[in-house]
Design goal:
alpha+beta, 6-stranded mixed beta sheet, 22% helix
Length: 96
């Protein structure tokens, strides 16, 4: 497993915002102690179903800012992908 801090637009490491890659190749965005996004390693980005935590995916302005950076899109794009089924809302935090 590999964990790294996200980087700000001016190149500084950002506290409490992490990119995690597990031993299976899945990539996660974690904000503070909550997993926000899971990108599965299998398939291509065209066929992957990206998972967003149903409770925390849009929890705060800070979470949203770094989620957008991680996914390389706007909140409007994210909402469209949830509605279309490309993104799945699920429990990524075991009910915390």
């Amino acid at each position: 497993m590999k964990t790294e801090n996200m980087t700000s637009t001016n190149g500084n490491k950002v506290a409490n915002q992490f990119i995690i890659t597990d031993d299976n190749g899945n990539t996660f965005f974690q904000s503070y102690s909550s997993v926000i996004v899971k990108i599965p390693m299998f398939g291509t980005t065209a066929t992957q179903t990206i998972e967003l935590d149903k409770k925390y995916w849009n929890y705060s302005n800070t979470t949203g800012k770094y989620r957008n950076i991680f996914l390389n899109e706007t909140i409007k794009d994210t909402r469209k992908k949830i509605k279309s089924g490309k993104y799945k809302l699920t429990d990524l935090n075991g009910g915390i």
